[in-house]
Amino acid sequence: MTASMPHAAGAAAAEDPPILQSGLHRSRTVTHGHAEPESEVATMKKTVMGIGPMLQSLNVMNEELRKRKDNLLRDKLVLEESIVTCNKEKDEDTTKLSEASESLKKLKTEHDDGKANAQKEIESLKQQILDRDKAICALVDTTKAEARKLCGLVIWYRIITHKCRKTRDCSLSSVLRVEQTLRILKTRPSLHTGFQADKLIHTTVRLPGIFSPRPRDFSLPNSSWSPKMMELYDHYNSQCDLETEDIESQKGPWIRLPSYNRILKYAKGGVYLSKIMQSKARLFTRNVYQVGASFEYVIFLNKEEKKCVCLFQAGHLLEGPPGHVHGGAIATMIDTVTGTHATFLSGLVVTANLNINYRNAIPLGSTVILESTLDHIEGRKTHINCKVTSADGSKVHTEATALFVSISVSHLMGM
Ligand SMILES: CCCCCCCCCCCCCC(=O)SCCNC(=O)CCNC(=O)[C@H](O)C(C)(C)COP(=O)(O)OP(=O)(O)OC[C@H]1O[C@@H](n2cnc3c(N)ncnc32)[C@H](O)[C@@H]1OP(=O)(O)O
């Protein structure tokens, strides 16, 4: 029976749900088969009765599906909305990004311009410093002996004045003010009328702070000084004019020379000056901060008698022979005192020759006196004698002669 069904009916049956299919199948069987019609009807009825709940569940399913579809549609709408928002934000971000990169580009250009300008200014400042350095060298290199002396004193005596400690210029500005200094130097009568030591000293105290602005003065007494050292210090210091810090107007026969651990302050940029102004450079005799450990000394200068006296207390770091001072340390002190003395007398000098006779060893920790006297000056040569004695003068420890030769600043730079 089933095999004889027409194709159209078979196709329709294939599209119907399985439950309906069985009912239809039977009704078709009844129609074509003409067999047991009543039971067929009853079956049909049963089938139709069964369809109701099925339809109900299908409707429930349908409703659920519809709800899900609605939910999905709502979700889709929400998603679409957020996509729109995202796109808007993306557009805004893109605009902001392009604005930011634009201003970054602008900033970079400004920065580059600023950098180039600063570079130019630095170059021009360097050139100014260089020009001034050259001007100093040119002045020093003049044939005038007074000019040489003057410039030597300008360099060296700056540190022996009290006034230099009051100057607080930074290195760069001080170098830039060299021009002003040069003007002062050129108008000094001493350049043309002969060497006038007092005036030169006075000139040097006007110099801007090439030197350290407020350095520690190592020549002042400290807790390590022995009673003998203090006694001698008081003796000479009481003969110094304490009223004024200006060397030119000091009336006492003695001047206590301040002493710092840094002679020249570092100046940036200048080829010539920076060659001799090294930031880490420290005076050999003043580079130990621990009081009493190495060289404790103070130099007094007597302008009228053209002599120097140095009170020296040798610390435990200066040992040579057990319990006694190293010969090199003694030589160092002799060179220092005679060198300072020669500088006062002749301006910028270097030691050319030093002859030393060690007569009696110096006990470590003891106080001795170094007396530096002028032998004679002969052209560029300054001959100095030096004697090292015990504090009471009863024992001669060392005797020396020293030769100092005057040099120009450019010689110093070329050394
Ligand atoms: C107040 C301020 C305080 C400062 C505080 C600092 C405290 C520190 C102080 C510390 C101070 C420490 C100080 C230091 O530690 S200074 C450091 C140690 N010294 C040196 O490094 C000096 C190196 N030498 C030179 O630069 C040159 O050789 C000099 C400049 C010396 C001479 O070369 P230059 O080419 O310029 O000149 P020249 O050769 O035509 O000679 C000129 C004249 O000199 C005579 N001659 C030369 N050499 C000798 C010799 N060995 N014995 C005897 N005679 C000598 C020569 O015959 C001639 O005489 P004459 O033919 O004209 O008659």
UniProtKB/TrEMBL annotation:
<dbReference type="GO" id="GO:0032587">
    <property type="term" value="C:ruffle membrane"/>
</dbReference>
<dbReference type="InterPro" id="IPR029069">
    <property type="entry name" value="HotDog_dom_sf"/>
</dbReference>
<feature type="region of interest" description="Disordered">
    <location>
        <begin position="1"/>
        <end position="20"/>
    </location>
</feature>
<keyword id="KW-1003">Cell membrane</keyword>
<keyword id="KW-0053">Apoptosis</keyword>
<dbReference type="Pfam" id="PF03061">
    <property type="entry name" value="4HBT"/>
</dbReference>
<dbReference type="GO" id="GO:0005758">
    <property type="term" value="C:mitochondrial intermembrane space"/>
</dbReference>
<feature type="domain" description="Thioesterase">
    <location>
        <begin position="323"/>
        <end position="395"/>
    </location>
</feature>
<dbReference type="GO" id="GO:0006915">
    <property type="term" value="P:apoptotic process"/>
</dbReference>
<keyword id="KW-0963">Cytoplasm</keyword>
<keyword id="KW-0472">Membrane</keyword>
<keyword id="KW-0966">Cell projection</keyword>
<dbReference type="GO" id="GO:0005743">
    <property type="term" value="C:mitochondrial inner membrane"/>
</dbReference>
<keyword id="KW-0276">Fatty acid metabolism</keyword>
<feature type="coiled-coil region">
    <location>
        <begin position="55"/>
        <end position="135"/>
    </location>
</feature>
<keyword id="KW-0378">Hydrolase</keyword>
<keyword id="KW-0809">Transit peptide</keyword>
<dbReference type="InterPro" id="IPR006683">
    <property type="entry name" value="Thioestr_dom"/>
</dbReference>
<dbReference type="GO" id="GO:0016787">
    <property type="term" value="F:hydrolase activity"/>
</dbReference>
<dbReference type="GO" id="GO:0006631">
    <property type="term" value="P:fatty acid metabolic process"/>
</dbReference>
<protein>
    <recommendedName>
        <fullName>Acyl-coenzyme A thioesterase THEM4</fullName>
        <ecNumber>3.1.2.2</ecNumber>
    </recommendedName>
</protein>
<comment type="similarity">
    <text>Belongs to the THEM4/THEM5 thioesterase family.</text>
</comment>
<keyword id="KW-0175">Coiled coil</keyword>
<dbReference type="InterPro" id="IPR052365">
    <property type="entry name" value="THEM4/THEM5_acyl-CoA_thioest"/>
</dbReference>
<keyword id="KW-0999">Mitochondrion inner membrane</keyword>
<keyword id="KW-0496">Mitochondrion</keyword>
<keyword id="KW-0443">Lipid metabolism</keyword>
